[in-house]
Write a structure and sequence with these properties.
alpha+beta; 5 strands
């Protein structure tokens, strides 16, 4: 079995919405062969809680407005460390970068076929690593200001 046209439409719209809100490392998997509960997973991350919320809100708004889709379940809201949106056909995971590294969902689903995504979403690959390096560099240089 493969992801349905509807699932692919939802995934692409959600991926574009996430990319528009500067999500990192957007990737989608066709999980229809291994899970009976959904066709596809979309994974995205952000370096802070506020951005996680912003990405989730944008995905919800776009799927509702453009495709008339509402999540049947939304989990993880209060902490905004890992928010799950369940649309039955697809499940969207938006994680804080630290959770993304810790839980490594890609390792769980690496044997599933990757779905092609809009160019803007593909361009987000490696952004989390880039952001972490910039953050570390800023912290290193910030420490030197105190050494007078």
């Amino acid at each position: 079995m493969t992801a349905t046209d509807r699932s692919i439409e939802l995934i692409n719209t959600a991926a574009q919405a996430a990319a528009d809100k500067l999500a990192h490392d957007i990737i989608a998997y066709d999980v229809s062969d291994v899970l009976s509960i959904t066709d596809a997973f979309l994974l995205a991350s952000a370096p802070n809680d506020r951005q996680v919320k912003s990405i989730v809100d944008e995905i919800e708004e776009r799927l509702q407005k453009e495709l008339g889709a509402k999540p049947v379940r939304r989990e993880g809201d209060r902490e905004a460390r890992w928010v799950l949106l369940d649309y039955v056909d697809i499940v969207v995971h938006v994680q804080h970068s630290e959770e993304r590294v810790f839980y490594a969902l890609e390792r769980l689903w690496k044997d599933c076929p990757e779905l092609s995504l809009p160019e803007d979403a593909v361009a987000t690959r490696g952004k989390a690593q880039e952001h972490a390096k910039l953050q570390a560099a800023e912290e290193d240089t910030a420490g030197f200001g105190d050494l007078r």
